[in-house]
Amino acid sequence: MKLAQIVDENTRIIDVDFGTVGVAMSRAKDSDTPNSVTFSLNGQNEILSSIPVGQYGAGSYIQYKRLDLSFMTMNNEMMMPVNVNSQRTSPVPLGSATNGATFNQVEEFIYIFTRPLNNELLLAPGINTYRTMRNLGLDGCDTLGTDLTDDSGLPNQAQCIYAEKRTYQSNMTLLASQNNGQILNGSTVYNTLEGEMSLASVITWGSMGAITGPNLHCYRVIIDNGQSMPADPEVLPIGFDGLTDRTWPPVNVSFLCKDPNFSEGEYITRLANAMSSNAEGGPVA
């Protein structure tokens, strides 16, 4: 749990760190989903849920961090972000893949919310739940989303301080395939050998609205279909054993915040907008 840093009377730095996660996915010949997934490195302790083996998208996961801003609530403080800075030690996940789904992009989302999702509903998700998490933080952008929040609705733009999406794709300059001639390693024949992926796109959204306590709820969502194949025998890699090994770099998102000097009425309105529709009915975060 992390606290906001006090710079001076009217300035705060509020930041969240997601740790490094290693993911290894292996797939047996003629299988369309991974039969083994393992997580490692210090960020694995932040993993809220993951898609298990045998399901499409196995190897995808969600990290969750909660920032304690209760001292701001006790002091009736509200801080407005004036700048956001997202840092990481690598622009792409490091690692390699053998006989993977090189036709699939990999997606990464960062969400900073003033209210939580219902984390209990995220403990045993499938790929459809992860796909729902593509569309959070804009008003009316999706349906109610009861698989994420029960009946409280999805977070709206006022409740989404910041969101970021990055997509990664196979790097064709770091890809060896049978198009280049058959790849041999002893008695094993490979369809493709893939190195580090390339960054395809980055997009951000959210309100950058005023922040108050008691918490910020932060999610990092990885949707990785790197060893999930369509059940189609014409897709060549399905006839080979597959292995994908990725190291997801740590991420830091920092907000430089200033006191907006709201009136009491503006403060109450902003607080209500940020905290409305809190999920109910048990622990959520």
Q: What do you see in this structure?
A:
- This protein has helices at residues 70-74, 127-132, 146-149, 264-275, and strands spanning 5-8, 11-18, 21-27, 36-40, 47-50, 61-68, 80-88, 94-98, 106-113, 160-169, 175-177, 183-185, 188-190, 192-194, 198-205, 215-223, 242-248, 251-258.
- The chain is mainly beta and 285 residues long.
- The protein has one domain (5-275).
- It has a six-stranded antiparallel β-sheet with strand order 4-3-17-8-14-11, with no helix packed on it. A six-stranded antiparallel β-sheet has the order 5-6-16-9-10-15.
- A hairpin with an 8-residue loop joins strand 3 and strand 4.
- Mean pLDDT is 86; it is low at 279-283.
Secondary structure: elements and pairs:
Blueprint: E1 5-8, E2 11-18, E3 21-27, E4 36-40, E5 47-50, E6 61-68, H1 70-74, E7 80-88, E8 94-98, E9 106-113, H2 127-132, H3 146-149, E10 160-169, E11 175-177, E12 183-185, E13 188-190, E14 192-194, E15 198-205, E16 215-223, E17 242-248, E18 251-258, H4 264-275
Antiparallel strand pairs: 1-2, 2-18, 3-4, 3-17, 5-6, 6-16, 7-18, 8-14, 8-17, 9-10, 9-16, 10-15, 11-14, 12-13
